[in-house]
Write a structure and sequence with these properties.
By secondary structure, this protein is of the alpha/beta class. It is built from 13 helices and 25 strands. The strands form 8 sheets. Strands 1, 2, 11, 12, 13, 14 and 25 form a 7-stranded mixed beta sheet that branches. Strand 1, helix 1 and strand 2 form a beta-alpha-beta unit. Helix 1 packs parallel to helix 7, helix 5 crosses helix 13 and helix 11 crosses helix 12. Bound molecules: flavin-adenine dinucleotide. Flavin-adenine dinucleotide (FAD) binds next to helix 1, strand 2, strand 4, helix 3 and strand 12.
């Protein structure tokens, strides 16, 4: 018997479990479907690209996307202790003040910017910044990159030449600008939430982590969650929770688990022969993800990281990393970003551009073996909404994922403007010594709006940020209340990115950790940290 059973040891679940255990709130059991985070590639910054095709991720495939030319792109998600935070590109971004103020205005009381900032800060152990927005001594290592390629520096200069001002901090007063990413690393090693929170909390004796445990449903007695059933090594087992069951299985798996447990849309459960326990029509709805598409130029020579993973170079780079903590292995590969408003350069950003100093496309897309520079823009607050549904009643089956990428015309309007800006950055003078004069993608023939529209639909892909499928709020379609309790069920909460009412403007790991941090205070019943009006 545990006091708290947490399903999923990903970014939110690890932060929550660590805080509950450290606070002596009771016995905490984390059930993680994936393996422990022992693979050495997890812990080196450059591991991200190598891990993308590995077994440490779920390789979901979406439904055919009508607005992506009928393609069904992949949507990789973390499937290992530490979740997405163990396999991601480690970019540390929080989003904009207004993201959270809109959450609060739409019913997520307590989640305005001034109320979440203290939790971002409590988490953060920044190696450069310590001010009204930042903290230096939290458990989550956040560091400047120690390795940046010349090609990335050329991007940062070129974006300025295209009119985007330089910023040294995307997470401070304003997000706007181009600059180098800070990453969730410490001393040259990845700092996932599992590393930051779970490992230290194990010493308290209040925490037990069970890996390789696929949770199959929440056990309910009447309207009360009392435990979960899971499969480990082919055996069905149970663990009971004296106080609460907390679902932290991420934006795709958490709604699936609720539905498998009889909590969800009535017709959907009936279709799969699952007895309805609590009717919640919003479960699995409101799926949002960022959708990116590349502007690429090939390099004139050996620039960026192309070829750095060849046999001989891997040995050299590995030795350089082990002996001197420098070189390409120290890079998270995605070293710089730009945040820009493509309608009004002075306004708060509506587009993010990731710069990757290689030709970068997902594994289900064209694989080009040449050195190149990729700018991947995406619309920060997409209007398109999709859904997650059950494929069948088998807990091991991947659910139906239909993000409906670019189904809203506003997303396409902004995407076209973003692509135009990305290609203009690649054409600036600071890129000239590194890249060919001819554009590789979309290519010089793709000029008018109709052609750009077709190109974007042919290349659109996930930025790996599915959120919103168990939305917080007080209306009929909300799944959890602002204290993250599942409506209509006692002792059951959701603590992960599925509670986001709207996708935030940026990468979603730091917000997932913030959600875990804030949830730990809510669950313990302590006063929230004082607002910070920075
Ligand atoms: C390839 C990739 C690159 C990314 N790059 C970045 C980046 O650079 N910066 C950034 O900020 N964000 C990035 N992200 C996104 C970020 O990592 C995620 O948004 C974040 O980790 C989500 O946190 P979460 O707690 O909601 O879910 P997750 O971290 O996904 O955790 C869910 C956990 O639950 C487990 N689980 C699922 N189902 C079950 C079950 N039935 N039983 C038991 N356990 C279960 C999973 O194995 C997983 O460990 C990236 C994600 C990916 C996949």
């Amino acid at each position: 018997m545990a006091d708290y059973v947490i399903v999923g040891g990903g970014s939110s679940g690890s932060a929550l479990a660590g805080r509950l255990a450290e606070a002596g709130a009771g016995k905490v059991v984390v059930l993680e479907a994936g393996p422990p985070d022992r693979n050495p590639l997890i812990h080196i910054p450059a591991g991200f690209v190598k891990l993308l095709d590995s077994k440490l991720l779920y390789h979901y495939q979406t439904e055919k996307q009508k607005d992506l030319a009928g393609r069904a792109p992949i949507m990789p998600q973390g499937a290992v202790l530490g979740g997405g935070g163990s396999v991601n590109a480690a970019i540390y971004i929080r989003g904009q003040r207004n993201d959270y103020d809109v959450w609060a205005a739409e019913g997520a009381d307590g989640w305005s910017y001034s109320e979440v900032l203290p939790y971002f800060k409590r988490a953060e152990g920044n190696d450069r910044l310590s001010d009204a927005y930042h903290n230096a001594d939290g458990p989550l290592g956040v560091s400047d990159l120690r390795q940046i390629t010349d090609l990335t520096r050329a991007f940062v200069r070129s974006a300025q030449e295209a009119g985007i001002p330089f910023t040294s901090d995307f997470n401070g007063v304003r997000q706007r600008g181009v600059g180098f990413n800070q990453t969730t690393t410490r001393n040259g090693r990845r700092c996932s939430a599992a590393v930051a929170y779970l490992r230290p909390a194990l010493k308290t004796g209040n925490l037990e982590i069970r890996t390789g445990c696929l949770v199959t449903r929440v056990l309910l007695e009447g309207d009360r969650a009392v435990g979960v059933e899971y499969v480990q090594g082919g055996r069905v087992q149970k663990v009971m929770a004296d106080r609460e069951v907390i679902l932290s299985a991420g934006g795709i798996q958490t709604p699936k688990l609720l539905m498998l447990s009889g909590i969800g849309p009535e017709a959907e459960l009936r279709k799969h022969g699952i007895a309805l326990k609590v009717r919640l029509e919003g479960v699995g709805q409101n799926l949002q993800d960022h959708c990116e598409f590349p502007a690429i130029r090939f390099c004139t020579g050996r620039h960026g990281y192309f070829g750095e993973d060849s046999f001989l170079r891997s040995i050299k780079n590995g030795l350089q990393y082990m002996l001197f903590k420098c070189g390409p292995v120290m890079s998270n590969v995605t070293e710089a970003c730009a945040f820009v408003n493509v309608d009004d350069m002075e306004a708060e950003p509506n587009v993010q551009m990731h710069f990757v100093p290689i030709v970068f496309m997902d594994s289900d897309q064209e694989q080009v073996k040449r050195a190149g520079a990729t700018i991947n823009p995406c619309v920060l607050r997409p209007e398109s909404r999709g859904e997650v549904r059950l494929r069948n009643a088998d807990p091991a089956a991947h659910p139906i994922i239909d993000p409906r990428y670019l189904s809203h015309p506003e997303d396409m309007r902004l995407s076209i403007k973003a692509l135009k800006m990305a290609r203009s950055i690649l054409g600036q003078k600071s890129f000239a010594p590194f890249v060919e004069a001819r554009e590789a993608y979309p290519g010089p023939d793709i000029r008018d709006e109709a052609a750009l529209d077709r190109y974007i639909r042919s290349k659109g892909k996930t930025v790996y940020h599915p959120v919103g499928t168990c939305r917080m709020g007080r209306d009929d379609m909300a799944v959890v209340d602002p204290e993250l309790r599942v409506h209509g069920v006692r002792n059951l909460r959701v603590v992960d990115n599925s509670v986001m009412p709207r996708l935030i403007s940026g990468n979603t790991n730091a917000p997932a950790i913030m959600i875990g941090e804030k949830a730990s205070d809510i669950i313990r019943g302590v006063d929230p940290l004082p607002r910070l009006n920075a």
